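Table S7 (text form). Paired inputs.
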Amino acid sequence: MYIHKRRSNKEIIGGSITKRRKIDGRNQNEHCEATENRVACYRVLDDHGYPIAGTTFDQVDEETAVRMYKSMASLEIMDSIFYEAQRQGRVSFYLTSTGEEGISVATAAALSPHDIILPQYREAGILLWRGFTIQDFANQCFGNEDDHGKGRQMPVHYGSNHLNFFTVSSPIATQLPQAAGVAYSLKMDGKDACAVAFTGDGATSEGDFHAAMNFAAVMEAPVLFICRNNGWAISTPISQQFRSDGVVVKGQAYGIRSIRVDGNDALAVYNAIRAAREMVVREQKPVLVEALTYRVGHHSTSDDSTKYRSLKEIEEWRRSRNPVTRFRKWVESKCWWSDEEEAQLRGTLRKQVLKAIQIAEKIKKPCLEDLFSDVYEQVPSNLRQQEKSLRQTINKHPQDFPSDVPLH
């Protein structure tokens, strides 16, 4: 019999829940020198969706659990259809969260809507949770007039000021020191909120990661750093990135309390982030969470991951360690979900995504002048000159300019 017992935040953050050399089927860095002293991984559900005996966690109510599952399934379906749309040439680029759906959705459920998100690029689940619609996603990917960014960002570089979600930035790790600054600003203003910065394992090799850790630790900025350690920085495996015990010890090295969690266990992520967030806001100090997961999809539509890893490995994670399937089994075990509801949800979602794409394709593109607006209150002379030069080039070579972009 599984007995629920509440555990304190500091006990969860301490990470001494399960000591294993292999976390959810994924070897930790085998080149690590301290092989006998690895940081434990917090895990609640086994691979079949059953609570692990002896593990403590805060129970999730039915409404929250079902909403979490629906959001994860929505992200899964949206990614699949948008990926195919890119392959059909309907959008120029796409990047999926396949295999990592549990991290963003469970995190969103554990946070306050007032917390400010500084994403990397696999955090669409947070936007879904906060109210970004399927149509909003489609408009951004197609860069049409209804896109919040007016078509000035490449696809999947979402942003929403209303939802406290910074626009995704392509350069790796730039959002991390910015998050420390945002957090310190929240602290100065006495806000009951924190900054939440996402990154991948590859970004921990960037100088910005270390600058952010040190700044946040020294200034005691209320920022929650979340690293999705999915094993690959595009084609570079973690064994070629660092020889430490993963990422969690990097936070400890800077004096930041850190926890390692099974990123494919949505219930564990929810509990870990909820405890970490409470600690960050209450004590006004940073926390680092390393979520162990696996990037099942290609890095992006510009990548073919079968060139550097086996299909057998990919399929093993897709079938046996799918975070969406694992969480669904747990929700079903609570009698909160059924096969009939599953079929209806997926059928409805597919129709919604396909309709959103059809609508987005028909909406006209933003006007050319929008390319130069919204950054400065008064457009500076250099931007006015650039716009003038661009219009002259278009007049000279109209055949090279997209016919669907209005000039005025």
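Next pair, protein 2 of 2.
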Amino acid sequence: MGILNASFSQNISVVHPEYFLISGLSGIPFSNYYYIFLFFIYINAVIGNSLVLLIIALDRSLHSPKYIGVFNLALADIGETNALIPNMMKTFLFDSQYISYNACLANMFFVYFFNTIQCVSLVVLAFDRFIAICLPLRYHAIVNNAVMCSVFSVFWMISAFLVAFTVSLITRLSFCKSNEIQSYFCDHGPLYRMACNDNSISSFMAKLNTAVYFAAPLTIFLSYLCICFALSKITTWEGRIKALKTCVSHLLLVGVCFIPIICTYIAAVMLSLTPNVRIISTSLAYAVPPMLNPIIYVLNTAEVKNFIQTVIKKKSASIAHSVSD
């Protein structure tokens, strides 16, 4: 009887390894240079998005619904790059590929949480453009700072709950065969597939999160179909182009954010990608958009360019005045 109880207890116990091993790129010579390249992307992303946050905070004319969305996007970009790339540098450049169990779950949470906020921000910005073009007379009644702050607060809470629930399900899994994660961070998919007990709930959540992720570009696509229909009703080409120009920056952000990762998903389904190819493609898809987002907004948004020009003129006038004195 005691033997049966011991056997039963062993069957229902959950085995958590003390550490996981992050495999990273394998069999590629000079792979360290790739991680250094990602580090330079990280530096540019942090500096660029920090400047965007500073500009929006300082310029009162940018305290508008649209720029509340841009502010949240910049916050998410900084959060994602900080959760992802410094960890990669520590892991692969300093031969520290082992990560503790709890640190692994924390890393997983923050990477997926901030990536979700990126998607949410782009969806909300699409909603902003949809109302501005399709319902221009009701724009200020529907979209204002209070509404945007409330919407983002709700989305941040929902995203945190969904990602936290997904990560918490990992604690129900036993890892009795291997502790090596075939990825460059504590990736949810490769991790839950290593479990030697029932991982069906984690598998379901992975599919649900993927469906939610792909719902974002679909929602944006539908928004722009409505925008195109509204633009077709404008009689002059000049009016259409003027309205469309307000969407250019957002469309570029959407393309930069979603096209690489969607192409990676499609390639993974249609072809059998090697771990190295999947790591390179997904790491670039996660790392490059946060670097490009602030560049796109600085170069394509008149309000930001005007603010920068005003600051430069004031500094130049101040320097000229001090020199003349």
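The two ends are 97 Å apart (CA to CA).
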